[in-house]
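Exercise 3.2. Students should predict the tertiary structure of the chain below and write it as structure tokens, then compare their answer with the key that follows.

Predict this chain's 3D structure.
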Amino acid sequence: DAAFRGLESTLHNLNLKSTGQVKLPTAIKQLHELSFLDLSQNKFSELLPDDFGNLRQLTALTLERNMVSSVDPKAFNGLNGTLSSLSLLNNKIEEYPTQAVKTLMHLRVSIVHHRTL
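Answer key:
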């Protein structure tokens, strides 16, 4: 994946809202300086182990209005020292993903609300 080649150490904000993503693009995992990532209004159905693990500078992650029904307990591994804002608003999550967020020491804002279909 060469989509972000050369931006690994300089790209800080990335908005992929409404781009039809069904999973996290591999190229994003190489953006080590990324601090803000918006993946809203896509087609994610699950968050997998270590999906965001390489994004160790990430402070804000928005996954609103996807179709997420499953959040693996290890989905946010690697973000425990940085992530302060997480939004999973309007997804298919039926219960708060306690296991996935319990190690996020700096989490100040966590919005999880399930969408009724």
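Discussion points: The CA atoms of residues 12 and 34 lie 4 Å apart. The helical segments are 98-101.
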